[in-house]
Amino acid sequence: MKIIVLGAGLVGGPMTTDLAKDKNFEVTVADINQESLDRLTNPAIRKIRKDLSVRENVTDLVKDQDMVVNAVPGFMGFRTLKTIIEAGKNAVDIAFFPEDPFLLDDLAKEKGVTAVMDFGVAPGMSNVLIGYADHLLDETLNATIYVGGLPKVREWPYEYKAVFSPVDVIEEYTRPARYVENGHLVIREALSDPEFHLFPGIGTLQSFNSDGLRSLVDTIKCPNMKEKTLRYPGHIDIMAILRETGFFSKEEIEINGTKIAPLDFTAKLLFPKWKLKKGEEDITVMRVTIEGKKDNKLLRYNYDLFDQFDTVTETHSMARTTGYTATVGARMIAEELYNRKGISVPEFIGKKPECVQYLLKGLAERGVIYKETITTLE
Questions:
Q1: Backbone phi, then psi, for 204, in 5-degree steps?
Q2: Using one digit for the tens of pLDDT, what is the confidence trace for 53-77?
């Protein structure tokens, strides 16, 4: 099977390497950044330098492929996926774009395409696990997600390094957060309602509202659902100050006769300081909790993930937890274990226990382990 990865960045590169280990795949990767392509040293990988923001380039790249993994930045994600679907290719998407993916559902069904959205760690496995527990329960009452990708070593002043596209990180700090409370949709500003949490082996982390529920708001019947992002204490206040001052604004301002978007200026200064240097390690922390009723009993499902930088392969944890979810998912589709036509969000896959077990097994084989705890509550 021919498979192409669009994007060879922090996550796209490791995904390409993982897929190339499979003798059943003939793997191609495309990116405009030659440096990103050069980091991939497996001679079995076909590397193509192309500007993926150009629709015709994407069409040309995917026309001879059997499956596509879309790993472009979020602002390019929707139109790139649309082009992939128009070409009639099955797809796994981790672009995490802000548009409604179901706008492409009719097109995908017309083309006979299986396209799985948001197939990373969160959104991604968080949705899968909520969908799985919801499928098992008679009634789902509460669902919470706490998740964060962090540098292993904290450094002043930001207490943070970007473990995926920095542009998409800023989006988390500016896009209003949606959650469900007492059966009603609530919209709050990002970075709001901070909480402290103690994680064994890590210490105290701080969470804030972010728009990570994504499709769960519409697909899961649950009166209380919330997703919050985890950071080291102190980071939230700094980001809130920058946002409220206007440093994240995309509206151009004039300085000495030159027009510039404040976000472009901020990115130029900030992103180099957020870049993980060679050898710097990261961690991924996630806790998904679902509570509900089954046979008149109140049950709690807990799924805990703690993953670290792989020192042997020098693969970042966020690339492992996000990317390997997508590559295992691609294998699942290739084997036709999951073949629903149209747009699928991860919780749809969670409704199929055999798919959930396939994903958990494939991730565990790559060292990404979700610890399940089921508790009967009083």
A1: -85, 130
A2: 999 999 999 999 999 999 998 889 9
